[in-house]
Amino acid sequence: MQDKPKFDRTVEDLGNVLGLEHVNVRVPDQHLATLFYVVGLGLTRDPYLMTGVTNMWINVGRSQFHLPTGEPQVVRGHTGLVIPDRASLLARLESVREPLKATKFAFRAADGCVEATCPWGNRIRIFEPGPRFGRRMQLGMPYVEFEVPRDTADGIVRFYKEIVATPAAVIEDAGSRCARVAIGPDQYLVFREGDVQHPSFDGHHIAIYISDFSGPYKKLLAKGLVSREDDQHQYRFEDIVDPQSGKLLFKIEHEVRSLHHPLYARPFVNRNPAQSNQRFAPGWEQQSWAQPLTM
Predict the structure, then answer these.
(1) 185 class by beta-carbon count within 10 Å (0-12 exposed, 13-18 middle, 19+ buried)
(2) Cβ 119 vs Cβ 133: under 8 Å
(3) I need a surface site. Which of 83, 140, 214, 216 has the fewest CB within 10 A?
(4) Exposure pattern of 97-132 as b/e (b: 16+ CB <10 Å)?
(5) pTM beyond cutoff 0.85
(6) Mapped to the 3 state alphabet, what secondary structure does the chain carry?
């Protein structure tokens, strides 16, 4: 007789979305963006792509921020990051306080995280590694949270389950109803209901890789929701609607990529921000985005 299964195999299910590749917001000043994202947060500018003065890609483990030059865009919510060594993070952020004093930059040590605001108002919550974000994540982008109107979470869950074909559920978190959507190993989109009023959608986007590329495309196309045809490997949509009623619930552009996309699974360089020319230690230049799995 076969023994009772030891493991809950369902926790390993990913669904159709295999990863959050990047969050894209325009910034008007690449110099100030460097001070915040590279010097302050301690992240790494991609050394191979977008190395000019009109755009920069910032590596965060296996994900990125894309920061093209233009009128500033602001995520209507916040981005969650995992970065080790809270004390060093706070020291780095303090070091850029003076050069960023004429901007919206701010930071504070909160209970369980560090809350930081970029020079143009994008909010970041930074956590140290821990079980909440999986056993292995040491550096990464575990979630993006959006603030949405009340009574929209159920419809958002239906949209991602029925159209995008990825696991989603309504949860209660910190006294709020949220739609929680799986978008990769230990990565989620969170849509938190509330009464916050935001400006109109300004066009910022997220990029995801999906396994069944054509399935959601056909469903989106049938509902008139494909907003842009980029190329053979990529399309976009921005309207999240309730599949039952067709009601528009929220706008956030999704750059949807296939697994044939030339950038899929491209390795990212992540530096160790503790290294400097004055306290250099050979062999410690890179920051590991994951710790070895121990059984």
Answers:
(1) middle
(2) no
(3) 214
(4) eebbeebebebeeeeebbebbbbbebbbbbbbbeee
(5) yes
(6) CCCCCCCCHHHHCCCCEEEEEEEECCECCHHHHHHHHHHHCCCEECCCCCCCCCCCEEEECCEEEECCECCCCCCCEEEEEECCCHHHHHHHHHHCCCCCCCCCCEEEEECCEEEEECCCCCEEEEECCCHHHCCCECCEEEEEEEEEECCCHHHHHHHHHHHHCCCEEEEEECCEEEEEEEEECCEEEEEEEECCCCCCCCCCEEEEEECCCHHHHHHHHHCCCEEEEEECCEEEEEEEECCCCCCEEEEEEEEEECCCCCCCCCCCCCECCCCCCCCCCCCCCECCCECCCCC
> Under a CB-based contact definition with an 8 Å cutoff, are residues 161 and 206 in contact?
no
Beta bridge partners of 80: 125, 143
Average pLDDT, the chain: 95
What is the predicted pLDDT for the residue at 80?
A: 98
Q: For strand 63-66 and strand 57-60, is the pairing parallel, antiparallel, or unpaired?
A: antiparallel
Q: For residue 217, is pLDDT > 90? A: yes
Using CA atoms, how far residue 273 sits from 69, 134, 140, 155, 237, in Å, is 25, 23, 15, 42, 36
Each residue's pLDDT tens digit, 109-158 = 999 999 999 999 999 999 999 999 987 899 999 999 999 999 999 999 99
Note the CATH architecture for domain 14-257: Roll (3.10)
Given pLDDT bands bounded at 50, 70 and 90, which one contains residue 75?
very high
Predicted confidence at residue 2, as pLDDT, reads 64
